[in-house]
Design brief:
Length: 193
């Protein structure tokens, strides 16, 4: 069982890393195999393939795309750390989602969002719609961090005590569904099915 935590921002001085590192640590403290995926390590071009990954007659060959796809394939569930940019989620995250199809299928996804008064919730709602088309399973128990900049200490560190409980609820639900969906996924990918 492996949970991958995907940072939705590649911006200079991004906040994304703080909640990303926090939830990876929480997962690991609970004995769960967790890995942080930083899209800076996967510099994908803007989508330029002749077909979608679902309809392409041959697998994509761009080495960065291959590397990203193989990494996504290792995950049994995902936590998206998402900022809100102009009431949506980031372009870099959409691009990373679009490059992959079957490796996302039938896997659960949870969300940690942050931003102004709405706490990034509009970005999460948009993500949920897109993930349904990727045949993923968006979770209900998510974490939102409204006005996160009001809860930073002198070193710029967020006060994570504010969201420990909701983080526990997120992990509990995500891991439950990751465990349930894994054998179903294996059944679905059996050629005779
Ligand atoms: C292009 C851009 C658009 C933004 N639009 C919103 C917005 O619609 N709602 C919001 O709550 N915050 C918005 N913000 C503020 C972000 O919440 C804040 O900059 C946050 O730190 C971005 O995440 P990141 O630091 O991980 O990149 C925006 C920031 C940027 C850079």
């Amino acid at each position: 069982m492996k949970i991958q935590v995907i940072l939705g921002s590649t911006r200079q001085k991004r906040f994304s890393e703080q909640p990303g590192n926090w939830i990876v640590k929480k997962l690991q403290e609970k004995g769960i195999d967790a890995e942080l995926l930083d899209l800076r390590d996967y510099p994908l071009p803007f989508f330029e393939e002749p077909a979608s990954p679902n309809s392409s007659p041959t697998p994509f060959t761009n080495p960065e795309v291959v590397k990203w796809t193989q990494k996504v394939a290792e995950g049994d569930g995902y936590i998206f750390i998402t900022p809100e940019y102009n009431h949506g989620y980031s372009a870099v995250l959409k691009n990373a989602l679009d490059y992959v199809y079957k490796e996302w299928n039938h896997k659960p996804a949870a969300f940690i969002s942050y931003g102004g008064p709405a706490g990034g919730t509009r970005a999460v709602q948009q993500l949920k719609e897109v993930l349904l088309e990727l045949q993923m399973h968006p979770m209900r128990n998510n974490v939102h961090m409204p006005l996160y900049w009001s809860h930073l200490n002198d070193q710029g560190q967020y006060d994570f005590s504010l969201i420990e409980k909701s983080g526990d609820g997120l992990v509990e639900q995500l891991v439950f569904w990751a465990e349930k969906l894994k054998p179903i996924r294996e059944e679905l990918t059996t050629p005779s099915k």
